[in-house]
Amino acid sequence: MTALLLSGKDIPPRVETIADPVPAPGEAIVAIRAGALNHRDVWIKLGLYAGIQYPVVPGSDGAGVVESVGVGVDPVWVGRDVVINPSFDWGTSAKVFGDRFTILGNPRQGTFAEKISVPVTNLVGKPAHLNWEEAAALPLAALTAWRALFSRAQLRAGERVLITGIGAGTALFALQFAAAEGADVWVTSGSVDKLAKAQGLGAKGGANYKDAGWAEMLGKVAGGFDVIVDSAGGPGFNSLIDLAAPGGRIVFFGATTGTVPEFNPRKVFWKQLSLMGTTMGSPEDFAGMLATVDRQSIKPVISDVFPLERAPEAFALMERGAQFGKIVVTVE
User: Fold this and answer.
1) Cα–Cα distance between 118 and 109 in angstroms, integer?
2) Which residues make beta-bridge pairs with 36?
């Protein structure tokens, strides 16, 4: 079969022919119709992710049709349209994943291939209102955003929400989920164009974090925020603490701009803030995310679509940070 391979640090991804997967007991072969790119795939390409095992087929997001099943799997699965849950072996606690937890696409072979073998327990029916590209855009980013907002921050209708770095897939899902559930959502970006597009998706307004005094301006316009969702960390995190309302919750799942310098705990305890980390989500979170997508008829924002043979271009686009929404790779 045809697949995209990452062979080593900083080596450009290549489309190659590899052996077809064979299902282990309890697994199913899914003929992939589309996959989607995440920043995680770029970190693996750059050698900046823990536990990398080259060569690897990247891709945590995927949707397709069950082609065959392994021993112990009900054959009724064959022919079903499915979305793949990329959280493997989460464990028994809803609070945190267990010791065996992994994410699809490293070390296990990922979705940028014609076929993939996955445990049938990681398969869920594709939402009927989504096409293949939209369904493939859901798994990792939508799961991360849903858990951040609802399992961790316990978002309620009517609360004020700030989402940083709008334009990335997870941030956009957070905007869509929060707005659909009745929250007042504000966003930040370094792009005026992305801020305008976010308002078209339901944001009340936003701020350009490249502008001097952006946090003070946003605070005057929007007031304090009950929930803040961040993936950047770095120096800007201290501004988020200032922007949080008393009793607010800041939930974060990344640190793309590095560690937080000169962190002042006094502001946190005096304002009774809760700082919460989150990563991916449990099977229950995945089910909850899909239920929200179905109930609210949410459609992922697709930035660009590339066929598998042009997947290296998808990586280049994400590395430039020029996307607004998910970058999708289709498999013919």
Assistant:
1) 10
2) 61, 328
Whether 2-138+300-330 shares its CATH topology with 143-277 is answered no
Q: Give the DSSP H/E element, type plus range, for residue 281.
A: none
Preceding peptide of 55 cis, ω within 30°: yes
Cβ neighbors of 267 (< 8 A, separation 6 or more) are 241, 242, 273
Residues 138-151 pLDDT 10s: 999 999 999 999 99
DSSP state letter for 19: P
Pairing of strands 2-5, 274-277: unpaired
State how far the Cα of 60 lies from the Cα of 8, in Å rounded to an integer. Answer: 18
Task: Check if the beta carbon of residue 325 is closer than 8 Å to that of residue 36.
Answer: no
Which amino acid would we find at residue 133? E
User: Distance (Å, rounded) from C-alpha 302 to C-alpha 290?
Assistant: 17
Radius of gyration of the chain (CA): 20
**Helices 283-296 + 139-146 axis angle, to 10:** 90
> Which pair of structure tokens corresponds to residue 181?
């559930």
Contact (Cβ atoms closer than 8 angstroms) between residue 70 and residue 32: no
pLDDT over 80 (residue 332): no
To the question of pTM greater than 0.90 for the whole model, the response is yes
Pairwise CA distance, residues 219 & 216, whole Å: 5
> Under CATH, what is the fold of the domain 143-277?
Rossmann fold (3.40.50)
Name the CATH topology of 2-138+300-330.
Quinone Oxidoreductase; Chain A, domain 1 (3.90.180)
- Look up residue 193 and give its two tokens: 């164009």
Instruction: Give me 257's structure tokens.
Output: 């701009």
Q: How far is residue 158 from each of residues 182, 215, 221, 229, measured CA to CA in Å?
A: 6, 22, 17, 16
Per residue in 60-116, pLDDT (tens digit) is 999 999 999 999 999 999 999 999 999 999 999 999 999 999 999 999 999 999 999
CA pair distance 330, 33, nearest whole angstrom = 6
